[in-house]
């Protein structure tokens, strides 16, 4: 949660960060440069996924998770404390871009080892619910970021928020860093040295082992691309509500707060349900519902922008849309051998995030700019939902309680 809070909070304050580090004289230009820097954090995520993911398979989950956390802490402090463009000129955006790239490396190696760790400590009958805490922690982080945004936008004048208010949000995450380091240092290791996955990878490379699961990896990449677009477009709704729908900053942050809060519920409920009825039904049916409801929800929001349409419309999409992906997390990790689980999951996740997460908000901003149509985000979400639904329908069922008697 702490690591994702540090990474996600940037998107909530993209406008204010743009003013601090990318003053261009154009609101659109400043926002696009700020979002491009947000995207820079995704460029290094595949590298972090490969390096830290394989490190977790060979050396252990705990040291990999601890390293990613420390790197994230250093980068968040750098962003929070870097002087503005007015104070140090071109050095300011360069430092911020470099820090975002370190963040991306750290987070790229976070999800794979953490998800693998959760699968490995969970009893078989509760694996999906335990793994659900991974995506749920991301939504808790986003909810916390939105809550901080609501409080700051409510208590600070716009010029104060531009000047230093956004830095307060980052420093709140930094204050919690020592606690996170302490927690991770106390975790029991699931891959003892010289046994299990560590010894297996000494004889067979990650690449050759991963090649045996090419079809599964391709489907996972499609699903993660779909989920990534949905996640980052949803997080962009704070900026969308202010820039396109022209609602107050407080309402915009409240929309993110409510939608992210509902995604926490959806993630955990999806995991609980997947342990009882299987992974595939929880992936397919809610994804189909999301596909059918997206455009009507956006029509309502655009034609009657206000607290009711924004909170209910995005709220419904958020809770339903979060159900399938917790079931997918369990399916993908269960289907991968332990010897390559951390590295493959981290790499596939990071590639999907880098390709589609880092560009999602730029694509939506560009679509809104060139079309002038406030429904543009829904088009991108619909395309993503279709791709995700097709891939989910082809995924295997891996739930232990759904397997035939006598199977492994």
The 3D shape can be described as: globular
Largest sheet: none
Work out the helix count: 20
**Helix-strand category:** mainly alpha
Distance between the termini: 33 Å
**Helicity level, as a percent range?**
over 70%
What fraction strand?
under 5%
State the low-pLDDT regions, or none: 195-203, 403-408
Radius of gyration from CA coordinates? 21 Å
Helix-strand sequence: HHHHHHHHHHHHHHHHHHHH
Rounded average pLDDT: 86
Count the strands? 0
Could you walk me through the main structural features you see in this protein, from its secondary elements to its overall organization?
With 408 residues, this protein is mainly α. Helix content is 83%, strand content 0%. The longest helix is centred in the C-terminal third of the chain and has 34 residues, at 338-371.
Question: What's the quick description here?
Answer:
The protein is 83% helix and 0% strand.
């Amino acid at each position: 949660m702490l690591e994702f809070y540090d990474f996600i909070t940037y998107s909530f304050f993209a406008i204010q960060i743009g003013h601090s580090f990318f003053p261009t004289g154009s609101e659109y230009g400043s926002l696009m440069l700020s979002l491009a820097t947000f995207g820079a954090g995704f460029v290094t995520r595949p590298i972090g996924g490969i390096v830290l993911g394989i490190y977790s398979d060979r050396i252990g989950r705990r040291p990999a998770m601890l390293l990613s956390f420390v790197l994230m802490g250093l980068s968040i402090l750098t962003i929070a404390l870097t002087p503005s463009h007015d104070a140090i000129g071109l050095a300011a955006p360069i430092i911020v871009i470099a820090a975002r790239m370190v963040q991306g490396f750290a987070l790229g190696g976070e999800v794979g080892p953490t998800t693998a760790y959760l699968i490995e400590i969970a009893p078989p009958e509760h694996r999906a619910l335990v793994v659900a805490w991974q995506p749920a922690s991301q939504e808790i982080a986003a909810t916390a970021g939105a809550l901080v945004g609501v409080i700051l936008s409510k208590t600070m004048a716009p010029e104060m928020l531009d000047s230093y208010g956004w830095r307060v949000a980052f420093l709140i995450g930094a204050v919690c860093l020592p606690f996170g380091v302490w927690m991770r240092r106390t975790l029991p290791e699931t891959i003892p040295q010289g046994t299990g996955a560590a010894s297996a990878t000494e004889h067979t490379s990650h690449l050759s082992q991963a090649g045996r699961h090419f079809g599964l990896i391709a489907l996972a990449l499609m699903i993660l691309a779909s989920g990534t677009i949905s996640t980052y477009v949803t997080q962009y709704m704070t900026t969308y509500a202010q820039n396109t729908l022209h609602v107050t900053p407080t309402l915009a942050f409240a929309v993110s707060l409510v939608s992210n809060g509902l995604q926490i519920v959806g993630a955990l409920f999806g995991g609980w349900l997947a342990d009882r009825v299987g992974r595939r039904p929880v992936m397919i049916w809610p994804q189909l519902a999301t596909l059918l409801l997206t455009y009507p929800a956006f029509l309502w929001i655009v034609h009657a922008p206000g607290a009711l349409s924004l909170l209910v419309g995005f709220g419904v999409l958020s809770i339903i849309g979060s159900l399938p992906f917790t079931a997918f997390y369990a399916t993908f990790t269960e289907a991968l051998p332990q010897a390559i689980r951390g590295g493959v999951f981290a790499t596939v996740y990071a590639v999907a995030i880098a390709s589609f997460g880092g560009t999602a908000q730029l694509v939506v901003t560009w679509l809104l700019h060139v079309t002038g149509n406030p429904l543009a985000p829904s088009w991108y979400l619909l395309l993503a939902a279709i791709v995700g639904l097709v891939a989910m329908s082809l995924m295997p069922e891996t739930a232990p309680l759904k397997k035939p008697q006598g199977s492994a």
